[in-house]
User: Which sequence fits this backbone?
């Protein structure tokens, strides 16, 4: 078998010698360059399975090497070496297309872990796209294409979109198509963890750290070692926890509650929220420095009303899943017309609830429009007040949805939040914003 080949770009001969020896022990061939110009000549003359470049070179910056590879050899992972604490350089490199970064001083442990992970992406076979991201509309094609690109890097990803649009599905697809696919994928709802338990849940704790800590326990960062940590509703994190999360991201190390020493962690972070992260930052509910570390690459999940051509396909897919192998009912033309014209404030999650209810109500294996029991709540754009601005119309729909959920739950806010598919904290924030408290 052909030995993988790595291009090393650095102007420090001693470091190049060290890297060459480490990679040779791993069974890898290497080529070396001491400048941007020399690196580009190597890249023009041969193909490489990985490139490792310093950020500071005599005739330019490693970012030029990253951009060249992203343009002319996009299947070659490129990692950058940055000075300690140079977070801005690392983020710039990740946005330009770098696979990952490593901080100086460079150690054998750091290099070997990075190289093993990056070389898993060198296989020219493209993994099959996930089947759960259903739809052939242009917005969904764009999402799938972007997922394919970001899956080949270690850059933090932020997934935006309304409740029920499939943000966790997208996060799982990124994980499945990445070099971390064989390691754990952990999904964490930040709004569901009590503030007093957050640090121990994220970073773990030592035995005796607090009352009830009878043994040592791993946190999310340790449990997800080598894999992906998906932080849903990231805006719900209190500011005190945001500071600690930022340090964990920057240093790639965490300290357990009750512990003294920090331990290295290796997880890829994907975060998501249905709230506007930029607006939360402007309102000082979200730290600016954490915003820039998490929002390196953004994927926006389109609302179902923005891709109505996918509704019929989605409906049949969801029905097949709900029936779990039993006989599928027929969606009549009137039912499909009704589904296509509905507004879906709850998006795909609401569509699934509508179909589940219709399955219980339909007769003779046929789902009619009446079985869907669609309300005029958001039956389409014509149902909105054309005299109102867009934000006022959206607020009106949101207010009616909340009122309906509160009525159905006898004014129990926890139950209403569950019906709406949001956290209690999120519901309380929305009600305060809409003046409903």
Assistant:
């Amino acid at each position: 078998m052909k030995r993988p080949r790595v291009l090393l770009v650095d102007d420090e001969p001693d470091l190049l010698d060290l890297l060459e020896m480490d990679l040779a022990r791993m069974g890898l061939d290497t080529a070396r360059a001491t400048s941007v110009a020399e690196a580009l000549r190597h890249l023009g003359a041969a193909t490489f399975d990985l490139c490792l470049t310093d950020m500071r070179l005599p005739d330019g910056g490693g970012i030029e090497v990253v951009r060249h590879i992203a343009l002319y050899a996009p299947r070659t992972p490129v990692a950058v070496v940055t000075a300690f604490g140079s977070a801005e350089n690392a983020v710039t490199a990740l946005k330009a297309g770098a696979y990952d970064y490593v901080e100086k001083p460079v150690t054998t442990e750091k290099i070997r872990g990075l190289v093993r992970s990056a070389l898993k992406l060198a296989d020219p076979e493209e993994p099959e796209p996930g089947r759960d991201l259903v739809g052939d509309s242009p917005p969904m094609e764009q999402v799938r294409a972007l997922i394919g690109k970001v899956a080949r890097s270690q850059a933090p990803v932020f997934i935006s979109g309304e409740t029920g649009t499939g943000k966790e599905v997208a996060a799982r697809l990124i994980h499945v198509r990445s070099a971390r696919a064989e390691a754990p994928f952990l999904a964490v709802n930040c709004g569901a963890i009590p503030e007093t338990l957050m640090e121990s849940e994220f970073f773990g704790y030592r035995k005796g750290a607090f009352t009830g800590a009878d043994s040592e326990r791993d946190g999310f960062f340790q449990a997800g070692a080598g894999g992906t940590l998906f932080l849903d509703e990231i805006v719900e994190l209190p500011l005190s926890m945001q500071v600690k999360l930022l340090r964990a991201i920057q240093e790639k190390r965490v300290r357990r509650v009750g512990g003294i020493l920090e331990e290295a962690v290796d997880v890829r972070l994907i975060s998501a929220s249905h709230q506007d992260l930029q607006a939360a930052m402007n309102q000082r509910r979200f730290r600016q420095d954490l915003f820039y570390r998490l929002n390196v690459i953004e994927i926006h999940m389109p609302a179902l009303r923005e891709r109505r051509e996918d509704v019929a396909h989605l409906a049949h897919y969801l029905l097949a899943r709900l029936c779990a192998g039993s006989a599928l009912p027929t969606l009549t033309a009137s039912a499909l017309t009704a589904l296509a014209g509905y507004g879906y404030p709850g998006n795909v999650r609401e569509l699934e609830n509508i179909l589940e209810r219709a399955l219980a109500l339909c007769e003779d294996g046929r789902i009619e429009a009446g079985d869907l029991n669609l309300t005029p709540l958001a039956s389409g754009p014509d149902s909105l007040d054309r005299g109102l601005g867009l934000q006022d119309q959206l607020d009106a729909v949101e207010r009616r949805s909340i009122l309906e959920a509160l009525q159905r739950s006898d004014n129990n806010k926890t139950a209403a939040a569950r019906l709406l598919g949001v956290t209690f904290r999120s519901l309380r924030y929305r009600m305060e914003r809409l003046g409903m408290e």
The chain has four domains: 5-119, 138-300, 304-382, 389-433.
